[in-house]
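Pasting two entries for a bug report.
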Amino acid sequence: MNVTFYTNSSDFLAQTRHALETDEAANNLMLGIALRLAAGNAPPTWSTPYLATVADDAGHLALAAVMTPPAKLVLYGEGDVWQPTTEPLAQHLLDNGWYVPGVLGPSEVAHAFAETWQALTRHPYRVGVRQRVHALRQVIYRGDAAGHLRAATSDDLDLLAAWFAAFHEEALHEAPDAASARDNAERRIAAEDMAVWENDGQVVSMTARSRPTHHGIAVNAVYTPPEQRGRGYATAAVATLSQQLLDEGYDFCCLFTDLSNPTSNRIYQRIGYRPVCDFNEYIF
């Protein structure tokens, strides 16, 4: 197995894009990150990225990896014999001094890398969020919540910054960082990626578009504060945004759900999202 490290995201995409786009929804995270790097619009919080592939002696792609520190390593893998591919990648990261806080990817390959990393470093891993990728090609339920979806504006910044911090703590199980949450909200509002559900003049839920790829786009940052839950606002917001994205010409929308939250999984499936693959996180 041969590891290739790329200093240029366009070169990385040239080697991986065809394989990643064979299952574009499942690989939306890696594709979205790489495309964003190639377009030169990475957020300022990303430092120098790690981009690598593992190929067999015939040049066949077996594994691809992307990391934008301080974020976790994201993996793509082909086949089912993982140690011969994860061990060279892990060794390359170690040999070149890369700090790896964790790994995220399709369940089998992510688990295999976590086992390999633990064996090489003698540092144990713990299971993080167990997720499932869903994709939607037709909205079948929009809900009946009162109100309407609108684009977020700078007037919403203070509120959405607070909600981003709460979202990261609740959905991603990460410690809230007020400054990063505000920067994230401000950047995404300016890019016109954020949307809010408003009812009777009050903003009651948020959602966003993210990571456009050739045929699809992700929906994320879905959050409703506890006092507004149970009224169908998130369902209506996600369904309405998803329909808008399909109307813009995307073939599908995709999103991640936390498998420990059966309520959100039911809601998204009711809208029309269908499971694609499991996507697990391991923290080192």
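Entry 2 (this is the one that rendered wrong in the viewer):
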Amino acid sequence: MRHDEFHRVHRIGWLRAAVLGANDGIVTMASLILGVAASGAGTQVIVLTGVATLVAGAMSMAAGEYVSVSSQADTQNADLAKERAELAEDPEHEHEELTAIYVARGLDHHLAAEVATQLTAHDALGAHARDELGIADMNNARPLQAAVVSAATFAVGALPPLLVALMLPQSARMWGVAVSSLAFLAVLGAMAAQSGGAPIARSSVRVALWGAFAMAITAGVGTLFGVTV
């Protein structure tokens, strides 16, 4: 039967990487610019800091996401290999495991056993991956996708605060970067909520508040030390 209902849960993998990358880009760039500007640094230092931050941050996000999600993929593959071996060595016990899972979910034992039999005949490993291990297509680890999305969205997020800093005179730079970055974060939260079907206002406020906290701390450090970092 054709499935016509629209759900957003399949977006979880790339949406998480995209929001994390863009949020990190905005907060990291804005925080560093505020910290450097608060120390009294000039435009040239801010440009060098901003460009270095954009490149290093994007590469760091890509590497971190790739390593992290690769570890997740390795764990999933190891569990699947173990399950495949158990299915070959003791299929009766594996059938009993599936039956017990379906009984725990509310089916009577006879129906649970029949469901286990039919799903095993159709795709034994797929049934155990989904119902015993919790591994489904929508949450399969995709290291390369996560790395590319995180790096690209970090760069996209980091660029606006840098451009704002370059366009404003030194006297207005700190407030301009702070206010515009909070606006960027609020928009990011709204876009993420819209994509995921979550409440927009709550998501926007949450993202903006944490960004404000990070920027305030960094600006405070820059002011405290009063040196170019």
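Dev reply: Rendering is fixed now. As a check, the viewer should reflect this: DSSP finds seven helices and no strands in the chain.
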